[in-house]
């Protein structure tokens, strides 16, 4: 009888614990800047490996794209967190958008220019003079290029600007000397094609030439920071943990699988090469925390945009960059 | 006719703009999401001239593309009327080709023809060509029995006469289709410019979109509306003039 009672007691306990209400996760939307690709690997990893859930959050990680603007979605309340490049953030802030920057995902802007060193002699910024340079008019590569030209005292009439789109044919055919691309994305694919064709290539890094134009950063609204500081803090720490883990070589296989599940278009071999480049662009100098905000680079970005009249008025950069307490 | 089309466009544009501003002020949105009237005004003053030139550029390509597709649709429809089989084959082919979204085909055209005028012209023509073709085939394949019977029984029917009879009897339908496809030619040109060209108002809109500048886009939309209204009125006027002339002849 006693055994029966014990059995009844324990089974009731198991039944009740199963029925006990689970702690409800707080749901937030996180709008990325671009489609799922290697530049979003940490975001996807944080979600897939339960970093958000462990901090009581259910995060809907939504892909971005050319027609998506995380900053507008934040203001309209469709998303609570987002990823945007510094030029987008500064443009929005200059027009009164109530946003703040929580972390900087890329320490070096992935935007570079590819060129063929055997055909195009290039050793310093001054060598851009007389060259035919690809540029996306209206894109942030235009702002970066103009900043480079200004820095090296090259007038626009001394270079030939070529309007670029998705088609790389003008570069392949040698009609353009420098072609803009993202070092951790297209550069891997284009580089592979050039290697197969037996061509040598190199990259022009604006960062190394002294133009530090900030790329992807994590943003939210001032209202969110003021009214739900706990949520912001939990989100940010989960996200940065996710990024750190995704970039840790020990978790490489897991990270690649997570990305391949979301991005089925890119071959695994390409993702492997892209991940290694992404590590170099995102990891801060030793000793610094992942996601650190490079205030000096932000100030320079603001200066570049102001000099080119891309923002109507100066922006108080320091007030934009916050670390949640 | 011009002022009616123009004020109708102004009413629609004003309503759209008004709705945006109501949203802006009721939701307390920043100028980044929806620009203020002051910013739209400033942008309008700064960009009216370059954007007007860009709209004229686009309109020029759209008109050329439209003319090209009218000529091509007429030729194909006249050939297609010869037998029921050819007519039905062309109609099926037109439906199938029309089913491909132009955004998927356009990059191939730009890779093959480059980002200059030929690509923009071809895409503009493609977008308005198939609807024109389907209507033209319908018109030219349908006999006008009560008139054609007389010429056939007297043995005086020629293919030219047959085309003339069918065109004359359906002139109102043809004019309506041509006017209707004009807006498609304009849309086709803008889409082509947006995707890959380096000139025209579609290209300017793309740059404005890169810069998240809705004020520029609103100015561009206003000028596109004005340009399209002018073109449509010109076409309607030409259509009416032709109809009057045919009736008086």
What does this protein structure show overall?
The complex is a heterodimer of chains A (325) and B (249). Chain A has 14 helices and 10 strands. Chain A is an alpha/beta fold and 325 residues long. Chain A is globular, with a radius of gyration of 23 Å. The N and C termini of chain A lie far apart (58 Å). Residues 16-21 of chain A have low confidence and may be disordered. Chain B is mainly alpha-helical. The relative contact order of chain B is 0.15. Classes of the chains: A alpha/beta (325), B mainly alpha (249). The A-B interface holds A 66, 69, 71-72, 75-76, 88, 91-92, 95-98, 136-139, 163, 165-167, 169, 310 and B 27, 29-33, 35, 39, 107, 110-111, 115, 195-196, 198, 206-212.
List the helices and strands and how they pair.
The complex is a heterodimer of chains A (325) and B (249).
Chain A: H1 2-19, E1 26-31, H2 41-48, H3 51-54, E2 57-62, H4 70-76, E3 81-85, H5 86-94, E4 99-104, E5 111-115, E6 132-135, H6 140-151, E7 160-163, H7 169-172, E8 179-182, H8 186-196, E9 202-204, E10 216-221, H9 222-227, H10 229-247, H11 252-262, H12 268-282, H13 295-307, H14 317-320
Parallel strand pairs in A: 1-2, 1-3, 6-7
Antiparallel strand pairs in A: 3-10, 4-10, 5-8, 5-9
Chain B: H1 2-26, H2 37-80, H3 84-98, H4 102-113, H5 117-141, H6 145-153, H7 159-169, H8 171-195, H9 201-210, H10 214-248
